[in-house]
Amino acid sequence: MADDRKPRDLTSRESEKHQPYVPSAALPEPIADPHFAYRWVATHVMGALDPMNASKRFRDGWEPVKAADHPELHLPATKDGNVEIGGLMLCRMPKARAEARRSYYDEQAVAQMTSVDNNYLKQNDARMPLFSDRKSEVRSVGDFGKGNSR
Q: Using an 8 Å Cβ cutoff, are 41 and 89 in contact?
């Protein structure tokens, strides 16, 4: 009777494999649409209505998403029919406009960094040069963080 048993390391328990735990996101993600970019816009801050922020975002081109268009979110609609949770309203913008917006702000950031560099480097002296090297690297430092004690 013991002869027909297989060694334990040869048997597999496919049905008992554990699925890794992944915590749920704080905000649900809508199903991706290739024509639109999505963003959560604050309508309330610390429980108080913030109409200035929402108004600015709407003028930028963000439009509220209707709950009927995204039933996968499983959220009740507001009185206007929009998707809102915890003072944040889901909005969308055409992808082409979102890309144009992103490139505009990227150019603004580059211009600001160039201005900071120019202001910093105008104090440069050949006797003691200033460096403006903008690279970063990630290095592993020995056994740090592995719990090894000396």
A: yes
